[in-house]
Design goal:
Elements (H helix, E strand, L loop, with lengths): L6 H26 L14 H8 L7 E3 L5 H7 L3 H8 L34 H14 L6 E6 L6 H12 L4 E7 L2 E2 L2 E2 L19 E6 L3 H17 L4 E6 L17 H8 L3 H11 L5 H24 L30 H4 L37 H6 L12 H15 L7
Parallel strand pairs: 1-2, 2-3, 3-7, 6-7
Antiparallel strand pairs: 4-5
Helix pairs in contact: 1-2, 1-3, 1-9, 1-10, 2-3, 2-7, 4-10, 5-6
This protein binds thiamine diphosphate (TPP) and magnesium ion (MG).
């Protein structure tokens, strides 16, 4: 048993993984009955990632799911009926039928930022939420997820760099499920471990078996604790596998049979059941109780969702454009005095000299000194700024001297200005 998790917490993880699978199974049935509006995505085989990472967060923390993170929504407290109604575009859904899939949030109570379709955009957004929390002294951590494919977008890199330089209390879960649509990860990233991307931004990273719920939780908890303590953002690569196609329309015939068989045998729920049984945390009776609880809950939730009406036709042209007060009530919440956080108090004095800049070796050997404004160029720096004479290997001494002379001539009085 993992010492950080109590018996109840171990069983919570199990319950939420089972609930996630059951919610998605129910939606597959609804999809086949033509009751789902739009696409339906699945996290089959990836339940441990969504559930065990979100479980490491505290209530006050913030998360932003992607479409394969329904498990995280359930852990955060979203009732299954909201997930069903949202996918069915019902009037009682969180977006009143205006949006589909898991594209909804809850800024007031559960601290959920809605998914953004453009892969990677949630990274700078959640960095901003993390910075906002720090500014308000809330000690919160923010979390979002990104796929292997999404980790190749520009905004992934811009966002992570921004988070790193701001030391934002932000944890990014990179779900490497080996496929982005029909592209295998090896054909789009020349890295064995996508966690290595963190090195470019000088931030900590972890690699974890995404099908091992306890391992995922342990790593996520450590990362969340570290981010909260001020260690800056952390990237976790969870290695897993997308067991179904990109969405319901995709039979994923491009996935090799052996690959699928390997991962099916590593089903995260079956692995966890074995672990719980070995630790004497779950027996047949306990399992039956959980089965019954989930069956009863989803029967009620599904019925509620199916009975909810579709939006009235007149509602179609409302909320399309922002109309100010009757559209939304979001206003800046200046918890600190506004004069303290706006110019001139918040202005930063410009600095024109950068100490130590240009002292390092450049990649083509030699130094690359750059002088700002009136900073006097030292003799050594001026010499080092010159390109080395390019002399063919067999050139005679005469040629060498000529080349060196030319270089020193062009060096005279040279200053690089910006
Ligand atoms: C910036 C951007 N480019 C392309 C897409 C279209 N798109 C949606 S999902 C997807 C594949 C994502 O693969 P991955 O990030 O590995 O996530 P997975 O589906 O495997 O969970 C693509 C290309 C998009 N939504 N955003
Ligand atoms: Mg993927």
């Amino acid at each position: 048993m993992n010492k950080e998790l109590t018996r109840k917490q171990h069983l919570d993880l199990y319950y939420y993984m089972r609930l996630t699978r059951a919610v998605e199974d129910t939606m597959t049935k609804l999809f086949r009955q033509n009751k789902i509006v739009g696409g339906l995505y699945s996290s089959l085989g990836q339940e441990a990632v969504s559930v065990a990472t979100a479980y490491a967060l505290e209530k006050k923390d913030w998360l932003a799911p992607m479409v394969r993170n329904i498990g995280a929504l359930l852990v955060k407290g979203v009732p299954p009926r909201d997930v069903f109604m949202q996918h069915m575009a019902k009037y009682d859904s969180p977006t009143k039928g205006k949006d589909g899939t898991s594209h909804f949030g809850d800024l007031d109570n559960l601290h959920i930022v809605s998914p953004i379709s453009m892969l990677g955009d949630l990274i700078p957004v959640m960095t901003g939420v993390a910075m906002g929390g720090r500014y308000l002294g809330q000690k919160i951590v923010t979390m979002t997820w990104i796929g292997d494919g999404g980790s190749s977008t520009g905004v992934f890199h811009e966002g992570l760099n921004f988070a790193a330089v701001q030391k934002a209390p932000f944890v990014l879960i990179l779900e490497n499920n080996l496929w982005a649509y029909s592209t295998p990860v090896k054909r789009q990233v020349p890295l064995q471990n996508l966690a290595d991307r963190a090195k470019a931004y000088g931030i900590s990273n972890y690699i974890v078996d995404g099908n091992d719920a306890v391992a995922v939780y342990s790593v996520a908890k450590e990362a969340v604790d570290r981010a909260r303590a001020g260690d800056g953002p952390i990237l976790i690569e969870a290695k897993t596998f997308r067991r179904l196609g990109h969405a319901q329309h995709d039979p994923a015939e491009y996935v090799p049979k052996e690959m699928r068989a390997y991962w099916e045998a590593r089903d995260p729920i079956l692995l966890y059941e074995k672990f719980l049984a070995a630790e004497k945390l779950l027996d047949a009776k306990g399992k039956k109780e959980i089965d019954d609880k989930i069956d009863a809950l989803l029967a009620t939730e599904r019925e509620f969702a199916e009975n909810s009406p579709m939006p009235p036709p007149a509602f179609a042209d409302t909320g399309v454009y922002c109309t100010g007060d009757d559209c939304h009530k979001i206003r800046p919440n200046w918890v600190r005095p506004i004069s303290e956080v706006t110019p001139p108090r918040s202005s930063v004095a410009p600095v024109w000299t950068v100490e130590g800049f240009g002292q390092g070796k450049s990649s083509s050997s030699g130094n690359a000194p750059i002088h700002f404004g009136d900073t006097p160029a030292t003799e050594e720096a001026t010499r080092d700024a010159q390109p080395l004479p390019r002399v063919p290997p067999k050139a005679g001494a005469k040629k060498l001297a000529k080349a060196a002379g030319a270089a020193s001539k062009s060096a005279a009085g040279r200053k690089v200005r910006r």
